[in-house]
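hi support,

uploading two proteins for the ticket. first:
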Amino acid sequence: MVVETLLPCSVKVAKLIQKSSCDVLCIIDRQVPPELVEQFGECRAFDKAFDSVVSCFKSQQLNLPVVYSPIQELSDYHDVRTYQKAAAKSLERAIKAGFKSPLLLVPASKRFANAELCTVLGALDQLYVPIQLREDVPEQAKRIAQLSLLIETPRAEDIIKEALVLESGRMVARDIGVGDPERMAPPRVEDYVNNVLSSLKKEVISDLDVLQKDYPLFAAVNRAANQVSRHRGRIIFLEYVPPKPARKTLMLVGKGVTYDTGGADIKAGGVMAGMSRDKCGAAAVAGFMQIVNEQKPADVHVIAALCMVRNSVGEESYVSDEIHTSRAGVRIRVGNTDAEGRMCMADALCRMKEIAIERQLPDPHLFTIATLTGHACISAGDGYSIAIDNSVAQKAGHARLLQETGQSFGEPFEVSVLRPDDFDFNKGKVIGEDIVQANNAPSTRTPRGHQIPAAFLIQVTGLDKHGLESNLPIKYTHIDIAASACVFPEIPTAAPIVALAKTHL
């Protein structure tokens, strides 16, 4: 049972349309209850826009207000997100009208097998309240009192149960992602995770000496922020151990940059606003662990690392031209301090590789999840994650499977492929450096700007020694969610945790 604090309101299954259990009826399908057929026909007769805009009116026969938020006409290229958007708009209109107990009629779809689940998730999307508002103004902690769902299938209870588990993970991801630079500074993320994910195994690396020795690239990014106690970075390891022998192991590393000033290569010209959302990768990993904690898969072992750091600017900032040696022993010249995401994740990713080898974990698959590049935004467009497999994961068809699953559950992916050019771009230019961390142009003006960081993460962690022809091939997938996690100042989406959960759990 999902704890109430991780749900936006009370949610229940409805069997009938009854005024006693709701104060408004929300409809998104053109196939309406018999009691409304005549009234809908009359509305269509005088309003040509009736099936394309949201309407709110009173049904005399049902003696109930009705919100009609029609699913748009579908082309061959539409996907199940049309159901999610219609459901969200219906709840938005109901809330604006002042209703507190809506009943949503959840339609089935011959075309989209998961339309019912996605419709429920779309409705729940609209009900999230940011953590700071919930904490600061408790009377506004819930947008409605109760959501009733009428789903005409024997699986109704199971659909709602699954939706609530997924929503609890999305709520964790949104809470961390939406929190401002102080509310979700690294120490306070640790406090939040300790409270919400208390039953998981945890290890927190915050000692400066340990970070400098074992996670030197992370420590470089953390150097300026470490001067302020409330901003000091930490790497939070979480682990779920299944009750049965594991058949596979998921190992996820999330970029958790709680605020990105750009560092010494400062974000100028008004482009710094919104950089509190640069932690949405780690937020997604935490949300995924909440889903794991609820589902408790019998034979899937999951280890996560949240790399929580603030890329501050000051006299202790790391700067371009510095040489740092990664955990894997690779010498790296800093090219741009605003490429801090790959730096803060690299050593934790290397540690995941080491854990997989040392413990001989079954079928390990490593991931990095990050709001990493502006190039992902211009390449894929708003709302789309990008998956990039290494050679081992690509041979297994992983990114394509993730794309197919994401398409089915309203979290679409584009798939990019690593090329030799991506690795060549990162090679050191002179003696004394193995790898150059970044060029000094924005990723949006760098050809292959979202693939190059994935190659960097492979090169500086030693994963390049675990390819197809090695003695121990290891699967690795980099997921860039810069275009899908959020468009500031909108609420974070929690992408891509639904697609990951449906693919791997």
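and the second one:
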Amino acid sequence: MLLHIIPILLYVGPTFGFIQQLPSPNILLLLTDDQDVELHGMYPLQQTTKILSEFGTKFTNAYTNTPLCCPARASLLTGQYAHNHMTFNNSLNGGCNGHQWHTIFEPRALPVLLQKHGYQTFFGGKYLNQFKGAEVPPGWNEFYGLHGNSRYYNYTLRENKRNVSYANMYLTDLLRDRVVQFIHNVISEHDQKPFFAMISPPAAHAPFTPAPRHKGVYSHVRALRTPSFNTPSKDKHWLVRSAHRLPNSTVVTVDEYFQKRWETLLAVDEMMVTLVSLLKEKQCLDNTYIIYTSDNGYHLGQFAQPFDKRQPYQTDIKVPLLIRGPDVPVGLLMHMPVSLLDIMPTILEWAGLLVPNYIDGRSFRYELLQMHQMNPLSQQRVLLIEYWGEGNDDTYNPACPGQHTDHLAECTLDADCHCQDAWNNTYTCIRDFRFKRDRIFCEFKDTEKHMT
């Protein structure tokens, strides 16, 4: 079997140099949907946590740059902030899978760069919310992209050259089978190329449908009763401050969604075990970087907000990030602040590529290599978090109080008509970790201006 070789940039003191030829590393990225950290969202992934934490590094201060699916995913793929890649929200008008994405940003996204460098690439699952399967995006050798937003049954995938619909196949399990076959095929080739595989299952996104084998596993669990649970707050911005205490019926719904979110993640945990076992069986686990993260977090009852993301608070902006692979420290807790933006430049350096100057993210490859002499300045970091409210005439729900001109959004009966977004729920925040401050400062597009 022939292995593709690239010159690996090794640190040998005060300067970098190409020291030795090593096999190109494989890269496996598992991206979940709306998975929180603050509310113990990693609890169902016991085996994943063991595999990646005990044999890798767990990041304790990882954040999304935008707490919403499409902008966050576009940032992960480009390494750029939303104000640079112009995907502002989940709508086509907001740039999600729109003209600028297709013509400017997608052609230079992560899979394109890796494919040009000799990688075999795979994508399976939710791509961008407005992806409708017209064609395979550039850079993917194998592509199984979900049409639209996350769902577990009754979905359509763009499967390479055609669109295929499924009614009764649980999506997470199908994605597991597709990526297993891809890895098996790549590793079995005589002229073995390195692979980059990105899997994006629907968990833990609504409609929170667990696999039948996992239904009811957490029926005894309630939503985490944090100090702010079902407690309206008067020191937040107006949208959150307008929340009223949730009635018991809505609290029951919050508990049910909490349970089901955990149950959807059990199939993801099984998928990770299957993939790691396959890599170990094929004797390529030690040369594979495995990344586990989510596009954004989620709240369930905090400040009497029923369930959603979109807000600049820890539940919504903090995400899981666990990594194992060549030279990744084992059993380490990494407290250095990082953003989803940082994943792309880190992957490029792992693959032996230079990081383009238009990328906003900062590679943390060096910090992982040099944990024994960590630069204190790496802890003194400020992260940018931004969001554009989606409320407009079309987001009005006549079943709830209010009117079209209020431009409120995400107002639903199961949330007791608490509107969880608005046209001016638009903000720019600085998540500041300098000098052990650990604080956030936000400016909103409203008459109140800021929040600390």
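thanks. also noticed: The chain has eleven helices and 24 strands.
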